[in-house]
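WARN no homologs supplied; continuing
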Amino acid sequence: MDRSRKSELVVVFDLGEVLATPRELFAELARQAGSEVQRFSAAYWAHRDLFDRGERADIYWRAVLGDAGATYDAGLALRLDELDATSWTTLRPDARRTLEDLNASGVRIAILSNAPLGMASKARAGDWAHLVDDWFFSGELSMAKPDPGIYEAATAKLGIQPSAVIFFDDRQVNVEAARAAGWRAELWTSAETVQKTLRDLGLTS
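OK structure emitted
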């Protein structure tokens, strides 16, 4: 995307919890699988790392459903995968406004997210995708935050100095890894905090 740049800084956002917060996701996934929410959630996260690094969706959902005490079915796995990807790529209104404000100011925007392949595709096809210049997904890169390599790969692709990156993530371990890579990284705590940081940097008004 070519737009007049107001700043040499690039603002990079994590996706889940930072821009998208699907409150009822696990309740709905568990309901469709016929499982208990806490058990399903535990299974979901127990197998998530490999999925985020590019593992096939059918392998992931088979493992999750097995641990959740549910019977694997290909159709069910497809429905769960669609719901999962859609939920994590549907932006909160405040997050969309932040991207729109940065976009209007000509600030370069990137996404760096631990996300499987299906979620990466869903994000790029989203109705907010036009607001984003660069995309970095763990499933496509076969490495995930907080691996040092993922920050190095993103910096190289962006073609800038690490110090020109402003990064927001909701996990402290990812923030610390980004800082070790030379990025300015901030722990996401609220939309208001992000907006204040961007205003203080002169990137939005």
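The chain has a mean pLDDT of 96.
OK
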